[in-house]
């Protein structure tokens, strides 16, 4: 009887050991829910760029960058990125230029432009137009980037990376460098994500709007990690 009892105990231990090992294996192979989660757990150039792509394609960022549809560059709105109401397109964009180091707004010839509704701060009620401005970049207020900086609904991480590293498609008012000028690229892109009021707004979007994933400070840090590694693009 004792031998039978010991065999039973030993067999139970084996079963428990096997079961525990299976649970450990399962836990190790559980995928992270989001790129930000993986970046937070293991920050490196690869996870950093995956997180950057997650933010850039989030509606809080991508809506302003817009899409090209029906022959026009159009901003989108909402978490589903629907076309902006009132048939708004680049034809209604607020134009900015730089004079003596300051941003100058121009709305000549436009009956309706972004600045007509989008002010310096968010509206206080749900559905009211958002707004953003800060003292880090005075005069740099709500507007659309040019069509070459559009973010289509299905843009891949590889496509976004190539777009960012191409000086012909990553800049508007200033030269931001690129793959062949990483010194300027680092200076301009880090400044852009750190100080641009429209970038900062993505984490403070106003009433009943979902913020971009993570935090602004994590986004800035991820940009530096990626650039300091030579801004590698995903392999696929």
Short description:
The protein has 236 residues and is mainly α.
User: Which quaternary structure do these chains form?
Assistant: single chain
DSSP summary: helix tally? 8
Into which percent range does the helicity of residues fall? 25-40%
Briefly note the structural class of the backbone: mainly alpha
Could you name the ranges where pLDDT drops below 50 across 5 or more consecutive residues? 5-27
Shape: globular
End-to-end separation in angstroms reads 63 Å
Largest sheet: 2 strands, antiparallel
Q: H/E order of the elements?
A: HHHHEEEEEEHHHH
| Strand arrangement across the biggest beta sheet | 1-2
- The rounded Rg comes to 24 Å
* Strand residues, percent: 5-15%
Q: How many strands?
A: 6
Mean pLDDT: 88
Verbal overview:
By secondary structure, this protein is mainly alpha-helical. Helices cover about 40% and strands about 10% of the residues. It starts with a helix and ends in an 8-residue tail after the last helix. About 10% of the residues have low confidence.
Q: Any descriptors?
A:
236 residues; mainly alpha; 8 helices; globular
Any chance you could write out the topology, listing elements then pairs?
Elements: H1 2-29, H2 35-41, H3 45-56, H4 59-65, E1 67-69, E2 72-74, E3 76-77, E4 82-83, E5 95-99, E6 102-106, H5 157-164, H6 182-195, H7 197-201, H8 216-228
Antiparallel strand pairs: 1-2, 3-4, 5-6
